[in-house]
Amino acid sequence: MDKILIRDLAVTTIVGTLAEERVTPRTVLFNLELALDLAPAGKSDDLRCSVNYQQVAKRLTELGRESKFFLIEALAERACALILEEFPAVETVKLTLDKPGAIGEAASVAVSIERRRVPVFAAKRGQS
Hints:
CATH architecture: 2-Layer Sandwich
Number of helices: 4
Structural class: alpha+beta
Mean pLDDT: 95
Helix content: 25-40%
Strand content: 25-35%
Radius of gyration: 16 Å
């Protein structure tokens, strides 16, 4: 599967369980792999046949600005859901979300998750 990679997207957000983390925004880093078929875009040189990664970055930045999650796991889950909801060409999203300085002895703490688009027919079968 073809991929668009977004590396070290710095997003300012409120995230954490400690009292000081609830009031002071911090920078987290998003590293994404967006899996989709890039052949049509490569052949046509037309952005409409791909995913506008600037828009993906903008939406994740907005998500960070608007959210106040306690856990980076929750922020990662919401970020993947947002991408799959708003960018229908993306079939799978892999996200590693780093929280620099979360532990004094480590450069960062991170979670890594992967989410796939649920095929429409599978979703409808599950509703029966």
